[in-house]
From TrEMBL:
CDD domains: MqsA (cd12870). This is YokU family protein. It comes from the Bacteria. It comes from Rossellomorea aquimaris. It holds the Pfam family YokU. InterPro entries: CHP03829_YokU, Znf_MqsA-type.
Amino acid sequence: MRCEWCGEAEVTNEKGNVYWELPDGTRAITIEQVPVLNCKKCGMEYQEENVINEIEDQLMLIDTKKLNDRLTYEELLKIPKFLKKNYFRF
């Protein structure tokens, strides 16, 4: 796998924290232990598109008013959904 920023081949899979604005824009939360890619050359730490989509879809499909300001990625994905899918993703 190559770094999406600099093209370096030495990219490692790790866990990191991300800060996400809720879909309604009322606040941001910290999501811990999120799968991230870390480039040793340029220092970028980022999420793959499928992880971003999972987080965004889950936040669209749950009651975000009940969320704590901090939770893990696994905890977020285990929260029961209102809808079966994100109808805004085409």
